[in-house]
Automatic annotation (TrEMBL):
PROSITE patterns: AMINO_ACID_PERMEASE_1 (PS00218). Residues 16-453 form the Amino acid permease/ SLC12A domain. It comes from Fructilactobacillus cliffordii. The chain crosses the membrane at residues 12-34, 46-69, 90-119, 125-146, 158-179, 199-221, 242-260, 272-300, 334-353, 359-382, 403-423, 429-447. This is Amino acid permease. Its main location: membrane. It is a multi-pass membrane protein.
Amino acid sequence: MQRKQHLAREISSGQILMISLGGVIGTGLFLSSGYTIHEAGPLGTILAYLLGAVIVYLVMLCLGELAVAMPETGSFHVYAQRYLGKSAGFVVAILYWLTWTIALGSEFTAAGLIMWHWFPGVPVWIWSSLLIVVIFLMNAFSVKWFAATEFWLASIKVIAIVAFIGLGSGAILGLLPYHGVRHFIGLTNFTKNGWFPNGFGGVFTTMLTVNFAFSGTELIGITAGEAQHPERSVPKAIRTTLGRLVIFFVGSMVVMSALLPYQQAGVTESPFVTIFSAIGLPWVGNLMNFVVLTAIISAANSGLYASTRMLWSLANQGVISPIFQRTTKREIPIYALLTSMVGGILALLSAVYAAGTVYLVLVSISGLAVVFVWMAIALSEIRFRAQLPKQEAHQLAFCTPGYPWLPWLAFGLCFLSCILIWFDSNQRIALEVTIPFVIICYGGYELKEWFQKRRKQHATN
């Protein structure tokens, strides 16, 4: 089949921004953000999320230059293949595809459990199956339909976070009652148990959790291949990324850290539910369950979109079977979509029947995979600019500032966050599993290329 650079360009600038926000604001912020506070302490959590926001912004600046210069569907997989080698491109695509398909399995289960909470007479598997059908249809109709649904789903999450920060700030300042009493709380929880109650090391050992929380921003690069005006929409989305990440994530963490003792944060329930309940909002449990459900649907929607485009890109580059390159009349890669959905269902089944073996390995890989992808983006930008003539570099519509120091800093910080995982015994398995997996994928593809060259040589002789 003939190679394409992109699919239908139907995603607007506003939709790109909301798709990126929808991908990054997942269930982790609503459900497991208390873990970071519990481990790193209040101030340590703020520092960890600030550092994470800086890392992801540096990576997005690198991706912005590449995506505007080469707005292709598949994005960083294509760049890695072009500037780091075919094997590196293959590894990046496989890691990213795995990240989202594994997440799909978790999201199908979580959505089913929330619906079961409301309708206990209906089995969880029926609700999970219903979500699978809904997510598939959202992606199968057209990219315009996907972008529109994701825009509104992401909007609900943004509204919930803004309301949380606003109401939480009111409680901190004594404008709203907290546990039935209206008084100035301030930031006493930040210093009550010392600046870093679990030691300064907690800032670094929670970086895998923080980086995983920020994963999804790179969707900006994938949507560039289907954006209406990538030369305008991609830089705009990237420039506003840091501000929104700081407001939504760091702002939420400041409110949580100020209102919850770090020992209790996220131990028994979502910090959002705990704080809303203490402020005295009615129906807070059902309200947050609804927000979390939309977050799950949004993350699954974005995840299926991203994994589908990765498979299509691999086929488009001639790496895997061309059947995955085939599209419908509306330019939806239907076979790649079906395969990605099957991958998500298999991840779901592994969570049910092999939680301590197969699923544990898959989750460990997906937790670290996004950081490996970010390092590949930074290296691709370095190689791209190095190969570009100086005259053409000055003509780029979007340039990574501070080249080459900024992309090297992005790579170095990502690499450092990987190394620091080794010092956390609970997260060390991510390194122990992911590094051998990457080596096997890289070596396997190199062997495949070698055998193909030998076969061609024999055929010509």
